[in-house]
Predict the 3D structure of the following.
Amino acid sequence: MLTRKNKLFLLKLLSLFSVVRGYNILIIVLAQYFTSIFILAPHIRLRNVILDPNLFVIVLASSGVIAAGYIINNFYDREKDLINRPQKTMLDRLVSQQTKLTGYFILNFLSVVLASYVSFRAVLFFSFYVFAIWFYSHKLKKFPVIGNIVASILAITPFFAVFIYYKNFDEVIFVHATFLFLMLMMREMIKDLGNLSGDMAQNYKTIPVVYGEPASKKILSTLIFAAGIPIYLLLTKYEIGYMFLYFYVCIALLGIFLIGIWGSKGKTHYVWLHNILKLIIVSGAFSIILIDVNMILDRILW
């Protein structure tokens, strides 16, 4: 039977996992490997990609910086989150602010040190990534439009790390990245709509606060139609194997999302809409393997 001390320790571990969004980091790690295997380096033997020490270090460094980013974001948003997400915030507060900051600096330091194993350019890349996340959390996230754009760019930056490593400049990669960027932009805007009360209380100048909910819904509708462009290109111009099934599902989900936007009337509705986008983003990471199912067996045997 667990003692009170052990229970508290487990709760603190759960709190730390909640702060760094461990589940999100795991998905990003898998997405980086799937992207490397099926999109960026399809010509390299599967075993060589998975066991590539440089790729492993890049993924590990990315995870460290992302975890640190969640910590510093949690640090700056603690008062706003107390209004918007009181239950999660109470769990997060089991770990002290001092411990969080210590973890933030340690994770960033170790990530940059790990990057030095790959190259000096990797050190510069991750150093800039660390600074960009801090500057966004400290300043930019409080501004409308630019905060959403920067947040979306920072979210796809780990994929650019492996993209630069493999030096693959195929056009299809940018089309995939554009679709992901638009989904992330929409996710950020839906989060702003759901966090409207906390943002107003803490004087965050987000799009819903500055321009109102109707304007936000119009922008979201525009982004949905804009997402149709990369979807159309991927379905008609490029070879994406069975991943076409994923994009057909996306079209249906985005249609539901569009209807839901204009029918939404409160935070509960925005949470459901956010979950639709999260489903699109997460399932997109796993659907990458559909690009060439036969490739898995071929490259294992190769």
Q: What stands out?
A: The two ends are 51 Å apart (CA to CA).
